[in-house]
Task: inverse folding
């Protein structure tokens, strides 16, 4: 019987159809039936489709334009050679995963029996969303190192904001190392960055558990942290492109399995995610070039790990007025380019006085524990930062000009209001510590 503590040592192909009793009191499950991983894994796609839908079935492929030549196009050719009817929708480069774009998949032919997402995490999130709506099995064919392929939810844009929708766990994942070994520096940086940012998300999860009573699984948290730390290994030893791709891909799959086991978004939903989404919204509103999602995640984690460390290092915060909720709504509308009514609907109400005092007491009571956690997270992210910069031909010079101090301050201040999950940033907002970044930013 597989034990949850041993998941990081189990071969990738066996991380399917699992039911794992856990010391946290829950039984965690994996519904995904197949994971085809390794060199030439794409060749298994016809057999997978046949297993789920029968020979010669009609499939619908959604692909990204940036990877269609090596991923979506090859998937379609392989299926056509085996007499499957394969229709394909290609999203133009830069098209975001929005409900409007995801709804295009709902127009698949009525006799479609399997949906296939061939591309990066954004395309595959839209396919999972459509599969849930159409009640069809879906297969992910990975073209990057996203750790969201196997998650049973999707991050989909709606009214300018990214929402997390409960969708479906894919029936199968195909991750072919032969496709991934030629990934560009931004794709590699995004994959590494998403894993290396995990210490901040895990810190927020544990602190939310202590402060709000949110459910917490120490075993899954430890496995996620292990995958995050192992991501540096191939880069430290100077592995070749194929070996590096294989190791990074394997760790992203293992991390993705953990999100399916947990059945919620907490492993990909800490303060760094909220800040990354705010930065994306700012760039979209200003028509600025946007970095890949994992790159933004890591930059956000690098910034927040220092903010959290400073916050917990200061025993006395001094008096700050409570947050100005109207100002926050105005800034969200003005700086992120969304409607005023939608912006105000996102602003979280100020907590009731008695409940907030209990929260403040918990932060004071556990401050030493939280400070120790913040120190460890900051150290891990700082070590990863050196590797992250050296993945790029300009040694990370682009990082200096990507976002200004004002960008980080503004987006950090507004981040707690654009996503639902509790983070340290939410408490800092309620303490009135973030509003100063909004003054003069109208």
Result:
């Amino acid at each position: 019987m597989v034990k949850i503590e041993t998941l990081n040592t189990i071969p990738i192909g066996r991380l399917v159809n699992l039911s794992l009793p856990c010391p946290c009191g829950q039984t965690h499950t994996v519904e995904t039936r197949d994971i085809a991983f390794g060199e030439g894994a794409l060749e298994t796609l016809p057999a997978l489709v046949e297993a789920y839908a029968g020979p010669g079935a009609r499939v619908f492929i959604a692909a990204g334009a940036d990877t269609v030549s090596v991923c979506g196009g090859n998937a379609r050719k392989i299926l056509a050679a085996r007499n499957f009817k394969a229709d394909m929708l290609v999203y133009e480069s830069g098209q975001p995963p929005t409900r409007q774009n995801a709804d295009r998949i709902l127009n698949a032919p009525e006799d479609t029996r399997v949906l296939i997402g061939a591309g990066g995490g954004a395309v595959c999130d839209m396919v999972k969303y459509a599969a849930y709506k159409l009640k069809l099995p879906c297969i992910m064919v990975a073209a990057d190192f996203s750790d969201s392929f196997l998650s049973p939810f999707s991050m989909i844009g709606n009214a300018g904001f990214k929402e997390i929708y409960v969708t479906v766990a894919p029936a199968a994942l195909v991750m072919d190392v032969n496709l991934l070994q030629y990934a560009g520096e931004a794709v590699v940086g995004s994959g590494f960055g998403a894993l290396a940012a995990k210490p901040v998300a895990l810190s927020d999860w544990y602190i939310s558990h202590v402060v709000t009573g949110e459910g917490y699984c120490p075993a899954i948290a430890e496995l996620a942290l292990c995958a995050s730390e192992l991501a540096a290994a191939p880069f430290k030893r100077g592995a070749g492109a194929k070996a590096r791709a294989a190791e990074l891909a394997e760790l992203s799959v293992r991390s993705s399995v953990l999100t399916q086991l947990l059945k919620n978004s907490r492993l990909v939903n800490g303060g760094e995610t909220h800040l990354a989404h705010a930065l994306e919204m700012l760039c979209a509103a200003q028509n600025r070039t946007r970095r890949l999602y994992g790159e933004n995640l890591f930059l956000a984690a690098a910034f927040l790990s220092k903010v959290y460390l400073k916050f917990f290092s200061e025993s006395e915060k001094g008096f700050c007025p409570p947050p100005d909720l109207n100002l926050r709504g105005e800034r969200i509308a003005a700086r992120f380019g969304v409607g005023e009514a939608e912006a105000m609907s996102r602003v979280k109400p100020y907590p009731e006085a008695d409940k907030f005092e209990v929260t403040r007491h918990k932060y004071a009571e556990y401050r030493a524990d939280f400070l120790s956690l913040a120190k460890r997270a900051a150290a891990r992210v700082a070590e990863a930062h050196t590797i992250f910069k050296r993945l790029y031909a300009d040694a990370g010079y682009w990082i200096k000009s990507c976002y200004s101090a004002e960008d980080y301050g503004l987006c950090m201040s507004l981040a707690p209001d654009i996503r639902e999950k509790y983070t340290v940033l939410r408490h800092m907002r309620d303490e009135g510590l973030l509003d100063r970044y909004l003054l003069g930013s109208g």
